[in-house]
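Duplicate of #3305? Posting structure anyway:
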């Protein structure tokens, strides 16, 4: 208890003086450090401001450069898109030309086949594998070859149109993305420190896994451009090929069609000449038949005219054979009568020319029938070639599509 009530120790005056000096020194030191810190902070703030402004200025420049890059590639893509769209439209017109040309081949082929079928109805010797038939077969083969070639070319054209549209789709999708990116970068370029809607964004600096490198970005658009160029060049080459095919096939078909027509005209002329010769022969045969008929009539009349004399002579001989006794004499009368009968009988027997004439008449009749049949064959051939086939072929016209 006594210790608790003990008086607090007192400091020496020198200690008090030292303590005051120390407080002053400590305060001055703190003040100096604070002043230095203020100067350093101001310098740091100034440096940060300048750095921030420079960084933001650099970012603005980068954004502007990026916008220019996007605009450049967007313009490139726009140009390629316009080119591929135009090329596809032109190729579609070539497709139409191919379709029309292919359709136009059907009628000539049908006509050629009908001509071959009709000519199977030729009769007799006229059912010949002549030049007309050879050229008709060749024409059918040419037309079938043209149809096959145009069909393959049309398939190739459809595939090229599909590839063009695929390139167009890739360009459109790339352009769509470029347009969106440009809109975003335009918005970013418009932002300033005083823009009202600027804000903090969580994880703004986080790079997601779907980010691509600038090189990949350029390669992607460059690939689309190269793809469009490649398909456009292929399309141009295909159009040149189609032009050549349409021209060549039209020339081939037109040339073969004319060859067939010339063969038909020549064949018709040959058949007409043959028919005319047959008709001339028929007229000759008919004249000869008439002459032979007159000859047969004259021979028959001559035979008939000899019946009276031979009957008289034979009757006389028969009557004189009844002379009595010695009167039955082989006198000059008897000799003459027998000679007369023999002579007339011999002359009648010489009339075997009648049988031969009748045989010749039958031959002439058979020849007449054969000529008439052959003329009918020629008329049938002329009807098939000149009326059925040649008139049908007048509707064949080879167009240049």
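Output from current build:
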């Amino acid at each position: 208890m006594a210790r608790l009530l003990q008086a607090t120790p007192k400091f020496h005056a020198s200690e008090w003086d030292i303590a005051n000096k120390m407080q002053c020194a400590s305060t001055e030191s703190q003040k100096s450090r604070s002043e230095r810190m203020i100067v350093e902070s101001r310098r740091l703030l100034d440096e940060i401001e300048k750095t921030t402004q420079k960084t933001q200025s650099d970012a603005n420049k980068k954004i502007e450069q990026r916008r220019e890059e996007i605009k450049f590639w967007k313009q490139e893509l726009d140009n390629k898109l316009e080119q591929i769209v135009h090329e596809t439209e032109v190729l579609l017109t070539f497709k139409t030309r191919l379709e029309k040309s292919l359709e136009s081949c059907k009628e000539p082929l049908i006509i050629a086949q009908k001509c071959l079928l009709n000519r199977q109805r030729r009769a007799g010797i006229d059912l010949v594998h002549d030049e007309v038939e050879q050229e008709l077969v060749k024409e059918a083969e040419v037309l079938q070859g043209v149809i096959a070639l145009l069909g393959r070319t049309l398939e190739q054209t459809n595939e090229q149109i599909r590839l063009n549209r695929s390139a167009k789709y890739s360009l459109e999708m790339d352009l769509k993305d470029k347009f969106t990116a440009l809109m975003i970068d335009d918005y970013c370029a418009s932002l300033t420190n005083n823009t009202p809607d600027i804000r903090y964004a969580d994880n703004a600096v986080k790079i997601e896994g779907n980010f691509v490198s600038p090189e990949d970005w350029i390669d992607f658009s460059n690939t689309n451009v190269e793809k469009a160029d490649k398909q456009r060049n292929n399309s141009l080459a295909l159009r040149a090929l189609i032009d050549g095919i349409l021209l060549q096939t039209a020339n081939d078909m037109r040339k073969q069609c004319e060859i067939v027509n010339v063969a038909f005209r020549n064949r018709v002329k040959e058949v007409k000449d043959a028919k005319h010769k047959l008709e001339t022969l028929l007229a000759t045969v008919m004249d000869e038949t008439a002459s032979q008929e007159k000859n047969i009539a004259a021979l028959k009349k001559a035979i008939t005219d000899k019946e009276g004399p031979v009957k008289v002579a034979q009757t006389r001989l028969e009557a004189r054979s009844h002379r009595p006794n010695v009167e039955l004499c082989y006198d000059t009368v008897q000799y003459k009568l027998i000679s007369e009968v023999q002579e007339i009988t011999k002359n009648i027997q010489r009339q075997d020319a009648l049988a031969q004439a009748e045989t010749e008449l039958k031959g002439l009749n058979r020849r007449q029938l054969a000529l008439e049949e052959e003329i009918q064959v020629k008329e049938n051939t002329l009807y098939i070639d000149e009326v059925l086939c040649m008139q049908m072929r007048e509707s064949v016209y080879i167009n240049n599509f």
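Confirmed duplicate; merging threads. The first helix runs from residue 13 to 104. The radius of gyration is 63 Å.
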